[in-house]
Design goal:
The protein is mainly β and 170 residues long. It is built from no helices and 12 strands. The protein is 0% helix and 52% strand.
Amino acid sequence: MFITKDLTVPFSFYLQKKWVDKSDHNCFMLFARSLYITWVVTRTGDENVEVAKLSHVCWLDVKGKFSISELSPGIAYEIVYEVKLTNGASGWELPITLKLSLPNGEVRERQVVILEKPRKKWIELNVGNFLTKQGETGEVCFDIIEHGGHWKKGLFIKGAIIRPKMITTQ
């Protein structure tokens, strides 16, 4: 299903979604249209949300940013990209870099190999975690990077989710 611009719906509807979780903490999803995506070929509708499709690229560069002041203070947050590989996805042998840049200048990077991830299913790639502070200002930036120069294809990007860190128990 494609989303068309309805003049009765604010443009921000296509950029982000905001909600408050059961613990009364602010959460956000930045949809694909609000991200800077190099070489995005098409944007298509999937599950009533516009997603970006990277059909054939040699340079993967996805960037997002968000004002930390919009988040609840004193909370550990996580940022995840929601992505999906097609059945025909290829060229993902090299790891991708997930980069988190915080307002205090701290930069964290981690590498993930997505070649073995499930196909045709939305998965989350955790960019990183951070703690918010009362009165903190500035932007949190988050990237997916792979500049290996070889061709890759078959990746959909739905967006990035900023939410309180999920605590898992074993």
